[in-house]
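Hi V.,

Quick status before I head out on leave. The structure for the redesign project is tokenized and pasted below; the design run finished overnight.
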């Protein structure tokens, strides 16, 4: 078979596990979409707009490890780039492919549609370079295979998004056939000298420490270090906590697990154990203003062992070329058991407060909503937590083994979860139960993507927390801008269904109504079910109020005098 640029790309997609790619059509990418389809090895899934297309790919990457989104020039790509920034922040390899001007127009001085009206079309590539770890413009079919392979390699190695633009007259241009995929995706091996020196330094650091602890951060997932962390905790016997953004990245059923470390809003008893630990081992952690509750807890200011995806810092020395997983496994072989932190935690008797069942006919509260969602979770559940009060309810839940949580706490784009949960459901195994907690304000940004869940018969269950506005913002800094126009959220599903959809829209105003709605949602396997949950606008997690005040204080620090 004669390969073309588009078919070469399709073949590479199939070889790296991209069984579906997400797309919005436009005249700069139509031939490319044809070529991708004709290869027949990757399916096309359509989105309502390019922001959603980028986030759908981001969600697919959460389920499958890598994803692709295909968009048109400027008008499409610029919307998608927001989601690509998110994929970068969240360490998810997404390949963004944009159709681009015809090669005959390059350097011609002509003005093209969808551009800002200058004859220089290079600005999209330049912007993409800031947001990705590799960006290429294909203007010659002969060079296309090497360019495509280079961006894929960078995405796989760095677990970050990449960008390709393909001149619209080149997608069907003949090019070389793809060689073995191994040469593109093979991992770089850890450097043995750096590894053994890093492990020796860590063992020396831990030697006279009284209370080691293990903290799990977001980057552990992208480098597949989760099982290694369990081994290290077994050898060390210490207490383990996850950060809020890494909930579910360490099994909560494991006897070493004590809860979420989130500064002042940590799970009961966890902050004390970690703040008094003299040897925190931080695996893939990222500390920002949100995760430190407005800089009120800054664990990285202590002496710690900081393990990044590809380098380790310990005892005042930095070791590059050491893969997180290799370091953790090698350290697990050498550490001495020290269960002091875990014993101290157990002796404190601290545990997550149990939520008591509400009177079934009382007005629904967010506590009752949390309790019922907690009751639904099983080993096959994945719970998406949208930015807002949902974070705090989800983080406080106890997860059965195998249950996963997805959130986007670094980028924090409200509306992320609707398209991301769509993309995730496209990529997830059929037995996965996909659930999302989404605030009313967030939903209004990207609601259209529920229509794509309907189109693809995906049984996603959405809990729409209708508290009449931006409650998290109310707690950070209130004003009239935190009130939003109410929608008939459950009612929109009928509009999206039109003549052939199988989505369901339900309303719950009491605990009893919620219980009934959940039963219907669980039984609906032919499409999404949205349960609109009526909540009082002041009703939110107590941790949100506490955290909101701390973040507000950090945001309003006066400028320091010169
Ligand atoms: C904003 C946020 O209704 O959730 O639980 O009521 O807060 P809660 P909602 O979804 O409201 C979300 C709202 C407006 N953040 O409280 S968190 C600012 C913001 C953002 N992302 C984008 N624009 C604005 N995070 C894209
Ligand atoms: Mg709200």
């Amino acid at each position: 078979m004669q390969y073309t640029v588009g078919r070469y790309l399709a073949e590479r997609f199939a070889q790296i596990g991209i069984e579906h790619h997400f797309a919005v059509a436009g005249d700069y990418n139509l031939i490319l979409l044809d070529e991708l389809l004709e290869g027949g090895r990757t399916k096309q899934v359509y989105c309502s707009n390019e922001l959603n297309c980028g986030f759908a790919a981001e969600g697919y990457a959460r389920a499958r490890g890598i994803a692709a989104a295909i968009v048109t020039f400027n008008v499409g790509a610029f919307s998608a780039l927001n989601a690509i920034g998110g994929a970068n922040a969240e360490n998810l390899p997404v390949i963004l492919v944009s159709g681009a001007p015809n090669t005959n127009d390059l350097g011609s001085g002509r003005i093209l549609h969808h551009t800002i009206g200058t004859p220089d079309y290079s600005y999209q590539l330049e912007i993409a370079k800031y947001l990705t770890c590799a960006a290429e413009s294909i203007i010659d079919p002969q060079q296309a295979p090497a360019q495509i392979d280079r961006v894929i390699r960078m995405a796989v190695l760095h677990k970050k998004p990449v960008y390709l633009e393909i001149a619209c007259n080149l997608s069907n241009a003949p090019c070389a056939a793809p060689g073995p995929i191994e040469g593109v995706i093979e991992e770089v091996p850890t450097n043995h000298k750096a590894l053994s020196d890093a492990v020796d330094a860590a063992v020396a650091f831990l030697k006279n420490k009284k209370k080691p602890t293990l903290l799990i951060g977001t980057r552990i997932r992208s480098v597949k270090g989760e099982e290694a962390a369990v081994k290290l905790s077994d050898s060390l016997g210490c207490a383990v906590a996850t950060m809020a953004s890494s909930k579910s990245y360490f099994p909560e059923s494991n006897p070493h697990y004590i809860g979420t470390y989130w500064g002042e809003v940590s799970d009961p008893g966890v902050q004390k154990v970690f703040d008094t630990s003299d040897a925190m081992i931080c695996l893939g952690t990222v500390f920002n203003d949100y995760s430190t509750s407005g800089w009120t807890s800054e664990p990285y200011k202590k002496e710690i062992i900081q393990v990044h995806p590809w380098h380790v810092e310990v005892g005042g020395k930095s070791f590059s070329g050491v893969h997180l997983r290799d370091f953790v496994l090698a350290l697990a072989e050498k550490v001495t058991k020290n269960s002091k932190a875990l014993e101290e935690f157990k002796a404190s008797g601290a545990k997550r407060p149990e939520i008591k069942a509400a009177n079934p006919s009382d007005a629904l509260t967010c506590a009752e909503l949390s309790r019922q969602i907690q009751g639904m979770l099983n080993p096959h559940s994945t719970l998406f937590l949208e930015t807002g009060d949902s974070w705090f309810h989800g983080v406080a839940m106890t997860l059965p083994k195998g249950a996963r949580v997805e959130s986007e706490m670094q980028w924090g784009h409200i509306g992320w979860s609707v398209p991301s949960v769509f993309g995730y459901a496209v990529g997830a195994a059929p037995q996965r139960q996909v659930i999302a907690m989404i605030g009313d304000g967030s939903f209004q940004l990207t609601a259209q993507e529920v229509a794509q869940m309907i189109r693809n018969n995906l049984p996603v269950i959405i809990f729409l927390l209708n508290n009449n506005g931006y409650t998290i913002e109310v707690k950070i800094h209130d004003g009239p801008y935190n009130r939003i126009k109410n929608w008939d959220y459950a009612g929109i599903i009928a509009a999206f269904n039109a003549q052939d959809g199988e989505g369901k829209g339900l309303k719950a105003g009491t605990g009893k109504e919620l219980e009934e709605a959940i039963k219907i949602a669980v039984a609906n396997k032919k499409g999404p079910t949205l349960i609109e949950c009526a909540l009082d606008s002041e009703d939110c997690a107590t941790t949100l109020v506490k955290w909101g005040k701390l973040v507000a204080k950090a945001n309003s620090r006066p400028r320091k005098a010169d």
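Above is the designed sequence. The first strand starts at residue 20 and ends at 23.

G. will cover questions while I'm gone.

Best,
W.
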